[in-house]
Specification:
This protein has three helices and two strands, in the order H-H-E-E-H. With about 110 residues, it is mainly alpha-helical.
Length: about 110
């Protein structure tokens, strides 16, 4: 899916993202979503491939196991992954090697 929700208003975009996640879960689909939106990558991507400017000699893969869960947008983990993605994108656009961040802390259980 190449930027499937890019020209939609925010409520419609979120509704369709949620519908996509429901279909993904029900149908056991594999999805590849291309997006420039940090928040969209964070909510839809369990693995996020961050590409710098070409040539992409060392793309970064960021694990995001909490993605695809109901209510994930309201968690601290979601906010942290958005911050990490933004930091890494800013570093990459400045022409510096992206720092490897520790895995994003999960929500406390219980």
């Amino acid at each position: 899916m190449d930027e499937p929700f890019s020209s939609l208003d925010a409520p419609t975009r979120e509704d369709l993202q949620n519908l996509t996640l429901e279909l993904w879960s029900e149908q056991k689909l594999s999805l590849v979503v291309v997006t420039h939106a940090i928040e969209e990558a964070a909510v839809l991507g369990q693995k996020i491939l961050l590409l710098a400017a070409p040539p992409n000699t060392s793309p970064m893969v960021i694990d995001n196991p909490g993605a695809c869960r109901s209510g994930y947008r309201e968690t601290t983990t979601y906010l942290n992954i958005c911050r990490e993605l933004r930091r890494n994108m800013e570093t990459a656009s400045a022409g510096q090697p992206a720092p490897r961040e520790p895995d994003v802390e999960s929500e406390p259980s219980g």
